[in-house]
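Example 3.
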Amino acid sequence: MSDRASGATLSEAVRVPSVWERGGKAFWRRAAPIVYALLAGGVLLLVMGKNPAAFYWTTLESGLLTWPGLTQTLIRLAPLLLMSAGFIVAFQAGLWNIGGDGQFLLAAAVVGGLGASMMGVMPFWLALILLCVIGFVVGGAWTVVPSFLKAYYGMNEIITTLMMAFIGINLANLLIKGPFLSHETLVPQTKVIPFKYLLPYIPGTRIHVGLMIALVVLALVHFLQTRTGYGLRLRILGMNPKAAVHAGLSVKKDIMTSFALSGGLIGLAAAVEILGVWGYVRADWNPAFGMTLFAIVFLAGLDVMVVIPFVFFFAVIQIGGHEAARQAGLPNDFLLLLVGLILFFMVLTEWTRIRARFNKMRKKAAAGVTAAPAEDVNNG
Amino acid sequence: MSLAACDRGGSPDAAAVQLCGITKLFPGVRANDCVDLLVQRGEVHCLLGENGAGKSTLMNVLAGIYLPEEGTIRVGGEDVSITCPRDAIDLGIGMVHQHSSLIPDFTVLENLMLGQGEGVRLNIKKAEEGLARLSAMLGVEVHPGTTVKRLSLGQQQQVEIIKSLRQGSKVLILDEPTSMLTPGGIEDLERVLMQLKQQGLAVVFITHKLHEAFTIGDRVSVLRHGRLAGTLDRETMAAASTAEMQSLVVDLMFPGEAESLASVAELRDLSELGGVGAKAVAGEPLLELHEVMVAGKSGEIGIEEALSLTVHAGEVLGVAGVDGNGQRPLAEAIAGQRPLARGDIKLAGASLRKLSIHARQRLGLRYVTDDRLGEGIVGPLSVALNLVMKRIGSAPFWVRGRTRPAAIDTNADALVEEYNIMTPSIHTHAGSLSGGTIQKVVVARELSFDPKVVVFNKPTYGLDARTAAAVRARIRELADGGAGALVISTDLEELLVLSDRVAVLSRGRLVGVVQNKPGAEQEVGALMIGGSHVE
Amino acid sequence: MGSVLTTDFFAALISGAILAGMPLLLAALGETISEQAGLLDIGLEGTMLLGAYAGFVVANWTGSSWIGFLAAIVAGMAVNVLMVVFCVRMGRDQIVVGIAILLSMEGLTSLLHAAQFGTSYPRLDGVPTVAIPGLSKIPVIGPSLFSQPLIVYIGFALIFVVGWMLYKTNLGLNIRAAGWRPVALDNAGVSVMRIRTIASLSTGALAGLGGGYMAIVTAGIFVPFMTGGLGFIAIVIAMLGRGRPIWVLIGSLLFGVALSIATALQLVGINISADVVQMLPFVAVMVALAILARQSYLPAALGTPFVRGER
């Protein structure tokens, strides 16, 4: 009695593909949507009378091929990596934390607001550590209301996190213009942390250690997800919430903790960015990394390690694209369109792959699989 | 039967539907293999076969839900092409599916009007008139304004039949219609079928129960492993005695296995089963339900009256009843997935009321759910992980939070061996396995690590005969080992083979508990219909 | 404090509520149709943006606001073709596609605007109001409620049209069946895909019109990202409205009040910081959700694609 098992009882191609071939195919599967999106974007640029080749070349040059450009990219990598990890932790558990930008900005405002004062009363390295923790806590705290409503009332978290994001962004501005306002500048912003107290550089470079922090944290998150019981529980929650309940998993607690961890990582991203790059936070500032990171995170299949090269590539486009857009006289928002296109192409390639696999299995079934006891599809 | 027979067929006037050489493939499986079928007007044609034989698939092809790889369909003597349900409906083919395809939150009338619209506005009057006319003809009573979820399953089925007829069906397919009915409901259905026969309809009746096929069918076609094993026509059925017919059919369904399957419940008539497997209740109480009441969700019947029940050590306590009479709420309340509205549940003396699902598992309570795919397993995870899903965080599989893959794999290997789980590897995604194998995984998981009391909800539903027998053997073995088993099932034959005592649930009330001795089935049947207390 | 409750204040509040609430009304009506059919349209904001842009450009070019409205409707439907192709036909994840629509429309409209109007900032003339004779003479509410552009009355009328469509026509029954139990609809011989396509395109039309209203009537100009989260508020209103257009009307007007109260207050001399003002509607949403949405009554098949042969 042969079962409808995944391919192992059906004879496959005789030749087993090599590691390189499989790796290459897997990489192309993930990277293809980016390529298609770039091509489509290029067409749009042409239509608007700009030179796509020049645009993309400038992007590459300013983001990657020059040392100052690469430095900028690597600096940008730190908050992007942490934010991506934050999204992945939530998305893997089936929780749509769409409010990342609010969590980010609020944490940034608090870190920026408290930073300078804290530097005055304790050794700077202690202050840095505490401020990172504060960023983590603020980001995590901002998820509590949506996660509680989701865990205990089943309320759709897409809407609640989004609403909290809008509130958070405005609240951050209120804080900066209010209690955290620095009276030493004309432009409304927080007090400035002196340059020497910011996150130190990686020796030999002008890249602050935030990048190292990010990579270490990512490795920890990866370990959590793949090698601990907690990580498995979150994955089950994402794959089949009903089964999670049935298995007696602490679903409500897990929803709240994973949300808090997600917001915390995003808050940490904000802390790293403020403490490493700026030293202060201006009012009405919103880098809005969150929305655009979605595409990257999905492309990487919600894997914390795989996401690293993709985020790197994305950072190149952000830094380089900013310069390219400036030179072409275009607003920065071209990136939004590009990310949207990446998502569309990702969805498209996913679909063609599913169709191809389906057709392949149908052909195999027709080609003379011995009559197995058919399962009533409805009963199975 | 070969295609030649398909060409000859009966006279075109009498043949309502003819299927010739239908082959339907799914990934890795031949659900139907060159099947021929001839259904005549004014007859009830039973399609018989065990679960997984391909009966529903064949009829889904006729109803336009599946497209066959090969074969032709003739309606009224002419070749037709059916590519979607609309085509089938236009040709006069209606199907009442095993799982209700009514919309529970809509009214009867709204459900009837679905897909019937001519023009923009809803024609309520026309629908009401049609309902009145057809209800009268069939001798049933349905109020148009009732929300469907408030109807009994039997009444819902009647609405579906009416809906089919309203669409002008000349052929009516019923997929396992009696699985959800009380004995009284089955009588009503038989009456309705007689009416339909007189109106000249062709009825196809899908079932896996032999005795049903004989009593209801004018002709019986037997499917086995996707192929047509044989057809018994009127003359043969009339001429042969019951015993001869049984062995004929058994030969068709299980060639060469008749002796070893002598005890398979599906073969037996109800009246032969009372008393099999009965044991005097011995051990101390393991699971005590005391004045329990449970709320039903959105129109579902819960446990509506204080229910008290005890499962003793070494006992198999069956819970009989038509589906939807409180079984799921009862099972979930015991497991902890649903709160108790009243009363308490004790496991070996310890109160479970305030304990979480996990805590109850720790005390030795297990739950084999009927919703295998929905909550029983996590499809994308491996078989090995599914087998330890309820022990996440515990040693030896997790030590200080860290996963120990070696221990998980060892456990999986042992269980796969012990329960004969047919999977290519312990790392295969559980969701890609067949229904029977998945059930074995669930049972293996629940029965490991010293269960004290196990609640089984419809444990053999939809399984092929061999796997079903294996599961029943496990249940018996579990009880013989000193644990307690609560088996909830809509299959009365199964309960009479398995249980020491049988409790009966009707409309959310415990109407009686019957000792399993000869004559038990009559008592249980009476309880299911009448609801009086018998002990 | 007494000077707040003047007739001026109320008049400003009501007209502000309508001005701000109308795009919400239209978009939320559209989202209601989608949700009843089982589709969660997260990209609504993107649809509104393209509607706003197309409406503005065409109205500016032709000088007619009605042709502008028409263009907004067409643009909205064009955006939702993406939902139809990716979600209805291919059955891909509605959240991912919705976000893709949102981002690409935000980027696209910003780019197009920069390319076309980078340096010039054309403004549309105001849209003429139509005063209902008699009613518009009622003090306080007369001028504000009954003396509005024709499109506003059309918007109110659409409430009843959509309500009638959903509950009194065959199409409406089919749409609701597609949202509750698509398999039942399929077995009844109606194409689930066709119904969901109709629903999604209707949503596009209404949301596009909502965006067009914002650009042509409210602002008279297109600004990138001008919808500022209104699309999401519309989604919330649709969810809270539970498929009943009359609740959509009430919800939209209430949020319209929240959006416009700052202007009305300014009129009587009370100034509130812009950040608080911007925050108010979203806080209002959270409060509303916390109180009301416990009994969220959403169609059972919302968000799940339908494949024949699966249950």
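Chain A is about 70% helix and 0% strand. Chain A touches chain C through 48 residues (CB under 8 Å).
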